[in-house]
Amino acid sequence: MIERAALNPDVDIDKMERLLQMQERVMDRQAMMAYSAAMAAMQTELPSIEERGQTNNGCYATLEDIVDTVRPIMQNTVLQ
Q1: What are the C-alpha distances in Å from 33 to residues 29, 44, 56, 64, 71?
Q2: What average pLDDT does range 70-78 have in this prediction?
Q3: pLDDT single digits (tens) 9-20
Q4: What CA–CA distances, in Å, run from 9 to 6, 12, 16, 37, 65?
Q5: I want to staple 60 with a disulfide (CB 3.0 to 4.6 A). Which of 23, 53, 65, 80 is the partner?
Q6: Residue 68 · residue 49 · CB < 8 Å
Q7: Which domain of life is it from (predicted)?
């Protein structure tokens, strides 16, 4: 529809801009929904990560361990 309107020399520029903004909002919403679905799918696959780091306040999972654990799961989720 937008392509047809763009080819029509009589189309109002303001109307065309509003159509493009509406299309961008729809695409943004679709991207957010896809992201949310991928994050939900990924979270079901995340294991507990061993807490090997230590401070005076307790133990924590190191950034390296988190990245090493999460990266392959994220790659598999994105590729699906």
Answers
A1: 6, 17, 41, 29, 21
A2: 81
A3: 777 888 888 888
A4: 7, 9, 11, 41, 59
A5: 53
A6: no
A7: Bacteria
